[in-house]
Amino acid sequence: MIYSAYRRKGRRKVRFGSCLYKKIEQRSGGGYSQSLSYFSLLLTLVSKPLFILRVIVSFYYFDSSYRFIHFYHVTDYSIMLRTTLLATAVLSRFASAHTAAWAKGMYCRNGISEHEETNTNLAVNPLYNLPKEDWWFQHDRGCDRAPPPAGEFLELPANGNFTVELAGNRGVTTLSYDGKHATDWPDGEQHPEHWDAWEGEGSPCNTYIGSLHTYNETNAAGTAWAISYESELEKVTMENLVVFSVLEHTPWKRMATYQVPNLPKCPEGGCTCAWLWVPDNCGQSNLYMQPYKCNVTQASSNIPVAKAQPPVYCADDKSKCVKGAKQMIAYYQDSGNNMFDIKRPATPGYNEKCGWTSGPQRDIFESDSNGNQSRSGEVV
Prior knowledge:
By secondary structure, this protein is mainly β. The protein has helices spanning 33-46, 77-91, 132-135; strands at 2-7, 12-23, 58-63, 66-74, 100-102, 109-112, 154-157, 161-167, 223-228, 242-247, 255-259, 271-277, 288-297, 359-360.
């Protein structure tokens, strides 16, 4: 859409045009490093004593997997200066369209850049209507090919807990800038402690933090972690990737602590984990599956996790809930789904609607020789 705004006095004219440019260029790493070059050029042009100057300032916004570029064509010098200040203010903020888990051991911590990228949000973009080969471990943006440094793992203490940061951009976590832009909230801003956008059917999602896909804390669908005892990402399957921890009413605040059952130790080279989330019918239908290198510490059990079974939506009939080790939720995709025919507005999620209770999943282990399943919440 192209539109024009006219200012009668002085017949000053500012044209605004916007276009959908292209799918994210993977080499950008999801940060703003390329944007800086535009500002360097802009400042150079401003310093020139030209009577009429035409400037193009590019703003990068990331939503799903697309880049929107808005061109501001300025034909008046004073308007150009105001536009420059506005552009600087806008780009000084961190892009925060969605949410991911940030911690050591994550893939795509620098986007897919080979260099340190303190301001990246490539890992947060959701997965929707993709073939399995693209949504599986964020292959669509190259995150599955951007592992953490050798020897770095997300540590999972058996029978303990671990904490990650849920945020829309690395820049608002303690992984960047010594945490000076981090707040209690995933977008690095300040918000009312108990905000609530629910006003009945048809209410929009809360606009304070739209990236959380929720009306309030109670409505937050819940997030989860899954583990595979395969060190190589290529060997992970739906059957050997088992959900082991669920945290209700998340994502909400930046800091999130998950409990770990009595997991056995990982093989040499570590395990592969995934952070998981399916929003509860608030905003676009999508899912999140974020890869991690992980390692179980303080392990005392040698009882392996069982083969994972597809979860079943059972909100209307608890007898249909799947017991034991369950797969991640695969839904809203072009292929590879393991849940089907859930009537809107109902949605699957990492909660009791699909047979999960909040906390460590204690029923995910293989049975012993007598057919008794290990009580994984206790030291065996």
